[in-house]
Amino acid sequence: MSSAVQFPLVIGWIAMLAGGIAFWRMSKGLPENQKHHGIAAMTIVFVAFANYLAMALGQGDLIHNGRDVFFARYIDWVITTPILLVSLAMVASKTLAPIRTLVCALIAADVYMIVTGLVGNLSESPYNYLWWLVSMVSFLVVLALIWGPLQKVAGQGAYRSEFSTLSLMLTVLWCCYPIVWLLGTSGAGLFSAAVESWFYLILDVTAKVGFGFVALNAVRKRS
Ligand code: RET
After folding, report:
1. What are the TM regions of this chain, as residue ranges (predicted)?
2. Which atom of ligand 1 is nearest to the CA of 180?
């Protein structure tokens, strides 16, 4: 791995560690019945910390068909994106029990999206594009569930405006991932592995640390 690819990965583990420490401090100020929001935010960044550290150490990628595939990104995403969705659901509804079917559907579509994305990254053209499409369909299902039933639930809850901010933030950021994937080394190869590494860093930090800050601040303000 070149140092140009490695540098953003080093920044990545430092940023996730810093986010984890910040969330731990913020969580201490939360009332007991709101601590689960802090636990979710911390789990997300500490999982990302481990994956960024592994990638920075050269333990999170493999050369497949002559291409460097960062499989650790998918291990990170397959764990953290379901937790991000659960975080959003916990803002939409005070308790998850009444919406468990919806949460299960969200997680199922999301895991399917990440796993098929990994298969695509391990595939040669044109099959990589086919897997991108399959993954995109499940991504659209995730978005449809958020903007349909989950939004309806949030409309009856206490955190309506916070839910709007977070769901918009999630949608805009998450939409960037398939674009980077399609244009980067896993697809058309329009930019280098180093540029791709920077793009994913900016997205991962905003989607995890940024999202966590907004979510925890919203919960703190209301409690
Ligand atoms: C892939 C493969 C191509 C098609 C699609 C994808 C979507 C990925 C997403 C990832 C989100 C990651 C987050 C991580 C950090 O917090 C897998 C790139 C649709 C939406 C939010």
Report:
1. 6-26, 38-58, 70-91, 103-123, 129-147, 168-191, 197-219
2. 18
CA 53 to chain centre: 17
Atom 19 in ligand 1: which residue has the minimum CA distance?
136
The sign of the CA dihedral 51, 202, 179, 143 is: positive
User: Of 42, 77, 142, which is best to mutate to test ligand 1, by the most ligand atoms within 8 angstroms of its C-beta?
Assistant: 77
* CB-based pocket (< 6 A), ligand 1: 77, 80-81, 84, 113-114, 117, 120, 132, 135-136, 139, 174, 177-178, 181, 204, 207-208
User: Which position has the token pair 């991000």?
Assistant: 84
pLDDT top residue among 40 and 222? 40
Q: Rounded to the nearest 10 degrees, how much is the dihedral formed by the CA atoms of 165, 141, 206, 180?
A: -140
Q: What is the ipTM of this complex?
A: 0.98
Nearest to 74, CA basis, from 37, 16, 115, 109: 115
pLDDT at 181 over 90: yes
pLDDT tens-digit map of 68-106: 999 999 999 999 999 999 999 999 998 999 999 999 999
Minimum CA distance residue for ligand 1 atom 15: 204
